[in-house]
Amino acid sequence: MSYAKAANMNNDRVNSAEIVQRGWEAVARGDWDAVVADYTEDMVFVMPGQNDLLKGKSAFRDVLDNLGAALPVGFSIDSIRQIGDGDEVVSIVEWKSERVPEGSQLSVLFRFSDGKVAEERWFIDTEQWKAAF
Fold first, then answer.
1. What does each C-alpha distance from 125 to 58, 82, 105, 112 come to in angstroms?
2. What is d(CA 97, CA 46) in angstroms, rounded to the nearest whole number?
3. CA pair distance 32, 59, nearest whole angstrom
4. How many CB atoms are closer than 10 A to CB 44?
5. 3-state DSSP call for residue 86?
6. 38 — phi, psi (to 5°)?
7. Which DSSP state fits 13?
8. What is the pLDDT of residues 8-34, one digit of tens each?
9. What values do phi and psi take at 115, rounded to 5?
10. Using an 8 Å Cβ cutoff, are 39 and 116 in contact?
11. pLDDT above 90: percentage of residues in the chain
């Protein structure tokens, strides 16, 4: 394989941070099928509090249909930035809601396997999150 062809192949590959950003953009549009397209079939979602596990792309997709019920009233995201690439990307999310009008931050760890999200793990101040409801 020529160097030019190999370089083009590398340029065509989307890096992990871009996949995460694409996912957040799909969330903003409510395009759940686009979100799960970048997840493995056996993915794991770890919810705030770290005790609740959701396993499998199909189960994750079902939860996304009711995402509004899982978020505090008036929940909005002010900004998102990505840290990392490769097998792990962390999103730092600045958010606010009616009961947390001054805003706060949470982080989400995305672990990748073969170019797809295999694990999504949320880190959040659970007391503040509970108070937001």
1. 28, 19, 9, 24
2. 22
3. 12
4. 17
5. coil
6. -100, 15
7. S
8. 344 456 799 999 999 999 988 889 999
9. 80, 10
10. yes
11. 59
